[in-house]
Amino acid sequence: MYNGKPAFAVVPYAEYLRLLGDVKGRLDEEVTLPHEVVKMSTLGGMSLIRAWREHLGLTQEDVAGRMGITQPAYAKLESGKARPRMATCKRLAAAMGVEWEQLMER
Description:
The mean pLDDT is 86. The protein is built from 6 helices and no strands. Helices cover 51% and strands 0% of the residues. It has a domain at 34-103: lambda repressor-like DNA-binding domains (434 Repressor (Amino-terminal Domain), Orthogonal Bundle). The two termini are 21 Å apart. With 106 residues, the chain is mainly α.
């Protein structure tokens, strides 16, 4: 446990390889962010998800609708407190038209 949350997960080796395959080949690619997104995230204290949404001129309702979820559920994703799963990040990225790696907090 780390800060009251699980720190490790044990998965079957085949599942590990499948998950690794999801990012294989992309590890060497450089992920870039527009200056405005970085500025909103660092200086404005926004999550990357919210910074991207605002940068793209979208509302929470727009993105939630594209994802097929409610606006309150989407609001939780961009709150900065949530740690969305990879599958959720990929759906979110597709809804915004960005790469999922661009939404990952570092």
